[in-house]
């Protein structure tokens, strides 16, 4: 990364906008009248995962919005009484509500990890509001019923953190050791990616959000069917359980070195009924930071399809 790029990223101001439940913090790049893109990060990452992607897109004429997801960084729940909810329907709705609050028309959504999940949820449930999609791990909508059953032992071992978080011991561990857990996952999920401690530390600061532990724990307990979600969101979860197909033009990406996705996700192609292209890159889980040009080019390709 060049010194100029690093300086631009460090100086990017945090903006805020209120939706129904949240005061969402976000970074914005590019011209205000540019073609809209919303980029969504996952766990244990933050908005800076897209720093270089956003700069490339801004140079291509895009207005890029990169929110901190609920429970991360400066994003806050407006009411102390709101459930600290990490379920997929809530996070997908957050993207749509953010887009509406900013007055965006037909944004392209891009995401990985939780952000890929939330972007797929938004595209599947609100197709009229999403013009295009770039999704790491293809159709990344969580099948709650499937999650209640076992996977191969090799994958269960990779998912050790999810099992840990099912217990109160896991909550205590995340509370006390969030920095160490996040760094372990970066190393495990992106083998061969050389990042320095300063880069990780900048992201780990987002884990100090007072709602971080509650949101993360709820996310993983809900996705395993072991903790209820918000009752008002159950109709959306029922729709997601039917695996609604995604109509928006989509580029999907797999990282060949990602231990979380052994064998890749090319078999998801039937769940995309619009224009669709799947690519595999020689990298790990964190494609936006490991190969930012690839992720940005995928967004630009979808924009080209829409023009």
Automatic annotation (TrEMBL):
Domain AB hydrolase-1: 36-144
Superkingdom: Bacteria
One Gene Ontology molecular-function label: catalytic activity
Matching InterPro entries: AB_hydrolase_1, AB_hydrolase_fold, AB_hydrolase_sf, Epox_hydrolase-like
GO cellular component: membrane
Pfam families xref list: Abhydrolase_1 (PF00561)
Annotated transmembrane regions: none
Gene3D superfamilies: alpha/beta hydrolase
PANTHER family membership: HYDROLASE, PUTATIVE (AFU_ORTHOLOGUE AFUA_2G14860)-RELATED, MONOACYLGLYCEROL LIPASE
Name listed for the protein in its UniProt record: Pimeloyl-ACP methyl ester carboxylesterase
Organism: Chitinophaga rupis
Organism placement in taxonomy: Bacteria, Pseudomonadati, Bacteroidota, Chitinophagia, Chitinophagales
